[in-house]
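Exercise (ungraded).
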Amino acid sequence: MSGHDPNSPRHLKHYFHDVNQQYETSKFAMWAFILTEVLTFAGLFVAYIVYRSWYPDMFIDAHKLLDVNKGLMNTIVLITSSLTMALAIWAIQKNNRKLSVLMLVATFLFAFVFLGIKYLEYSHKFEVGQLPGEFYSYMGPDAVHLNNPHIFFSIYFIMTGLHGLHVAIGMGLIAWLIYSTYKGNLTSEYYTPMEMIGIFWHLVDLIWIYLFPLFYLIG
Amino acid sequence: MSEHHITPLRTYLIIAATLLFLSGVTVWVSYVDLGALNIVVAMLVATLKASLVAFFFMHLLWDDKKNLTMFLMSLMFFGIFVTITLLDTEFRGDLGLNPETKDPINKRAAFYDTLPLTDTHGHPVDEHSDDHHEDKDHH
């Protein structure tokens, strides 16, 4: 602390002019991070587009091996968790700490449910051998005619896997938010971390919004 | 920081309800056979949902426009990425350079031991016919 103004808020770093500049800078940096996140997934979306254009029939048939109900359930769970995350920020802006903590806990639980459903899907695929690359061994009657179904499952596992990793990281961040908010470290005066993690969490929702129709609802 | 925009609770609830409704729509429409239009409709609905999330939940609507610019730039670079890659992958074989591109590519996968190789249309492919394949494309 340079102590340029003894009345400045505790959370204001000395190298910022005022709290608003600090907040806006954090937010802009967060969006720069979101840009790198979008580009990370972009590579995988390009892989999806290229292989789907090479094997259009295989993609349509292979997607029938996925469970639409579980995919839809996860969509509903994730959208609801996005809402509770937004409400947590709304509550802290209104200085309602208790409601904010409650909404963060709800978000955390929805994230847990999402990963639980994902676990059920994955374990079934491991059981029957619908696995990526050379590990693929599924020979059911609905798959014997497929040409290169292991490519579909390579892309499916990498994209949903990286997305699932984001959900898991998001859960860790939200757990930390629950602690900080409960302790009173975040208030209506200073809730920047919650706003930033909120943006991250909505990005996770946003990517799933595309993954859901691209894998579960083809043709 | 009282100057921050506080989105009304009603807005959040309406957006969430719309998102859930659109999720239902996209599932329903996937069971209607629209041919090639299915993917177009699915992506339009997804983009509408993504816009609602970005503008309302991520607060881009009320933010300084530099944040929106950053986000749109990521989408622009994605567009460039897709376009340039497809200019390659979609036209391989037109020059007879890589006629084997679309053949099964991982012959080590376990299930190939028991499965006859097929081309993209599901027709059987002879594993040792690589020479003929090249001949055809060169003439």
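Further reading is listed at the end of the chapter. For now, observe: Residues 129-139 of chain B have pLDDT under 50 and may be disordered. Helices of chain B lie at 9-30, 37-57, 65-89, 130-138.
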